Amino acid sequence: MMEGANATILVGWSLSAMLSAAALLVSIAGDLRRGTHLAATALMVAAALALYTHDVMALPQICAALITGSAVGLALGRGIPRSRIPLLMSGLVGLAGVAAVLVGGAALRDPHAFGLLDDVSDRLRVVGAAGIGAGVSCGAMACGGATAMLRGGRADRWHILIIAVLLLAAGGATAAFIAAPDPARLLACIAVALVAGWAVTKRALLAGMGPALAVVSGFAGWAVAASAFLMENMPMAVAGGLAGAAGSLFGIRLCVFAERKGLAHAGRRP
Asked: DSSP state, 251?
């Protein structure tokens, strides 16, 4: 069970969110090494707070996984060229999306363990279904975006109307799942969201790797917020929401600025 969200916990999650936003800003500005250090610090703070705020039954196994993952990340970070660091970061962000999808699937499979069942009807509550749908959709979009970056990192000018239709389709699939939660509709959410995340990221790559990474990080932040909501970890939900909002706003701003600059250079706009 989660402890009360006291001031120390709130400050800790806020610090983690601010470090994540700072890492994104610094990476977009070109200082990839400092951005990586800030992102690693944010993850360490978040992991420590998650262990502190919950009664963890398998603490030795979790610590072993953290040590193993840290060793693998250190080996990858030291062996990868500097120019490929954004791709490595996008892959790590994509793993956060995968985790959100798995959390949503686990919540649908055993809603009682997550406290999502209605006390009277013993059915999945609408709020719980909304949290599962949002977490899975955003997580799948983060996965699709990360895959788009990792497959060569080449831009593709998807028409804005097609992207809008895909995003609306993802929202519609999520709404259909919320109305009648079942595994088939959840799989439909994942499929549509993967394509939507791929298309949005390919379009963002026209503005550069930084904006695309910001967009993918925004998807992952929203996914973390929804997953934290399912686990009744409100401070983590706030931190994920802040990171999601920061990534989304940075990505949109950078993409719009880049496109306007390109039009101006082409002589189409004064």
From this structure: H
Domain layout of the chain by residue ranges:
7-265
Which residues make Cβ contacts (< 8 Å) with residue 101, sequence separation at least 6?
135, 136, 139, 140, 143, 190, 223
Name the nearest CA neighbour of 242 among 38, 15, 7: 15
pTM of the model: 0.73
Nearest to 32 by CA among 197, 213, 218, 155: 213
CA angle, residues 263, 269, 270, in degrees to nearest 5: 130
Q: What is the pLDDT along the chain (270 residues), one digit of tens a residue?
A: 344 456 777 777 778 778 877 776 776 666 666 776 777 787 778 777 777 766 655 667 777 877 887 777 777 666 666 666 677 777 778 888 898 899 899 889 888 877 888 877 778 888 889 999 999 999 999 999 988 888 765 666 777 888 899 999 999 999 999 999 999 999 999 999 999 999 998 888 888 887 888 888 889 889 988 888 877 766 667 767 777 887 788 777 777 765 554 433 333 333
The span from the CA of 118 to the CA of 120, in Å, is: 6
